[in-house]
Write a structure and sequence with these properties.
This protein has a single domain, classed as Alpha/Beta hydrolase fold, catalytic domain (Rossmann fold). Helix content is 59%, strand content 8%. It is built from 9 helices and 2 strands, in the order H-H-H-H-H-H-E-H-E-H-H. Helix 7 links the parallel strand 1 and strand 2. The radius of gyration is 16 Å and the shape is globular.
């Protein structure tokens, strides 16, 4: 999907990253977790954890790897989960496109959830993942 992610991440993110890598990874936690939204409860622990992950990794793979052909080859049921308030990779640039490309996709859209929804909304995400896996296992066994 990276052709799409390139438009999202693009040169602006790479320029900010090159200018001040530590500050970039600190600042991006605000939209990543929806912490820049009114009423958001900010967790400094989560922000620090993400900063560490960012400092250990990079944006190159995210912005330059195209997984489209890989997705076309997947022929098992896949749950595509995406928040509709993802400010990092908007739903139209990834979730909706992935669901169209995957042969057996189930798309679940989460109103108001951010990119970091597995962390900020772990109870909901984990419950839905478990339900999908149980349903898929039950269907496969039948």
């Amino acid at each position: 999907m990276t052709r799409l992610c390139k438009r999202v991440a693009g040169d602006g993110l790479r320029a900010a990253l090159a200018a001040n890598r530590p500050q970039f990874y600190k600042d991006i936690t605000l939209p990543f977790y929806g912490y820049n939204r009114p009423g958001a409860k900010i967790s400094e622990g989560i922000r620090e954890h993400w900063w560490l992950q960012g400092m250990l990794g990079g944006i190159k793979a995210f912005s330059e790897t195209d997984f489209t052909e890989d997705l076309k080859k997947i022929d098992i049921p896949v749950l595509v989960m995406h928040g509709d308030d993802d400010q990092i990779v908007p739903i139209g640039a990834a979730g909706l496109m992935s669901a169209k490309i995957l042969k057996k996709a189930t798309l679940k859209v989460y109103p108001g959830f951010p990119h970091g929804m597995p962390t900020t909304n772990a109870d909901q995400i984990n419950a839905d993942l478990l339900a999908f896996c149980k349903g898929t296992a039950t269907t496969a066994a039948a």
